[in-house]
Specification:
By secondary structure, the chain is of the alpha+beta class. The protein contains seven helices and 20 strands. The longest helix has 16 residues, at 15-30.
Length: 322
């Protein structure tokens, strides 16, 4: 793999992450690689600047932080097909980010020699639509006209984990009624705190907290999960990754519904509008350097499943030392 331009994002306010960034930048510059560095976090988003700073293509993005840092990178870089090397340096979670140990042996020779694995992770895209003849009118009146009769009312937003629709208000905790369509057919109406539409990668995030299923991250599937539904019959469902999902906020005359991508506020959804969600055309490309990286071992460790809590020296199928 040719490394002409590499960008490095480190977690803002974290010494460990910044120190790792400095080491990586020095190693790469000694090899003649052009390097751009910047912090990433709640108050810093370096990716639009990275993309506009040069006319040369970005060959690799090194993200030093936790899973939140990787999610931010994927939202901006995945649509451009830029590989992401996620390293856990200063972050808390580790479902996406690899151990910083992979940097201890100076991995750039390995990368330039192609000694790595690129894992494709499905992305979602969401866009707000509205009926042109109704504007901000009654969403129920717009129903049945079909998405082809509408027009886009927002930019396209991307997510590696999940798209979330839920209302927000400073004075109270409003409930929501969301009508879900899959491929133009009504699935259900969720009455509760909101709804999540997640990728398999996002199944271990907000979706897991909302009692959704865990999916192996390379599956081609979409998870729809109600958040705290008021009906016990409202259950999560897994659908094809090629499905089209439309979500209509109902009974929201105050316009409290908000669209969130990977936990970041995108914009408001006004009365008469709905959100169209589908698989993004370009997946996130995560560069894997760990030789024995195991998703199931990560699950056992992070969720403290049996085997990480209980030590049995020998078993009938896995003898000690075997």
């Amino acid at each position: 793999m040719d490394l002409g331009l590499v960008v490095i994002a480190y977690k803002e306010g974290d010494r460990e992450s910044k120190a790792a960034c400095q080491r990586c930048a020095e190693q790469l510059r000694r090899r003649g690689v052009t390097v751009l560095t910047a912090p990433t976090g709640l108050h810093h988003n370096p990716y639009p600047v990275f993309l506009e700073a040069t006319s040369d293509p970005i060959d690799l993005a090194v993200v030093l932080g936790g899973d939140g840092s990787v999610l931010a990178a994927a939202r901006y870089l995945a649509p451009h097909g830029i590989p992401i090397l996620p390293i856990k340096a200063g972050g808390r979670l580790g479902f996406l980010a690899q151990s910083e140990r992979v940097l201890q042996q100076d991995p750039w020779d390995r990368i330039q020699a192609g000694d790595f694995f690129l894992q494709a992770r499905m992305m979602l895209q969401a866009q707000i639509w509205e009926q042109p003849q109704l504007g901000r009118g009654d969403p129920l009146a717009a129903r049945g006209e079909g998405k082809s009769q509408g027009r886009p009312a927002s930019e396209v937003y991307y997510a590696l984990n999940e798209i979330c629709l839920k209302p927000i208000n400073r004075e109270r905790l409003p409930a929501a009624i969301m009508e879900i369509e899959v491929n133009g057919e009504i699935l259900d109406q969720y009455h509760g705190d909101g709804v999540l539409v997640a990728t398999p990668t996002g199944s271990t995030s907000y979706t897991l907290a909302a009692n959704g299923p865990i999916l192996e991250p390379t599956l081609d599937a979409i998870i729809i999960t109600p958040i705290c539904p008021l009906s016990l019959s409202s259950r999560p469902i897994v659908i094809s990754g090629t499905a089209r999902v439309d979500i209509w906020p109902l009974a929201d005359p105050e316009g409290l519904t908000r669209l969130w991508t990977d936990g970041v506020l995108a914009q408001s959804v006004n009365p008469g509008q709905w959100v169209h969600i589908q698989q993004a055309p370009t997946p996130a490309k995560l560069m894997i350097l760990e030789k024995e990286l195991s998703y199931f071992r990560t699950l056992r460790e992070k969720l403290q499943w049996a085997g990480s809590r209980i030590y049995i020296p020998t078993t009938n199928h896995r003898p000690e030392g075997g």
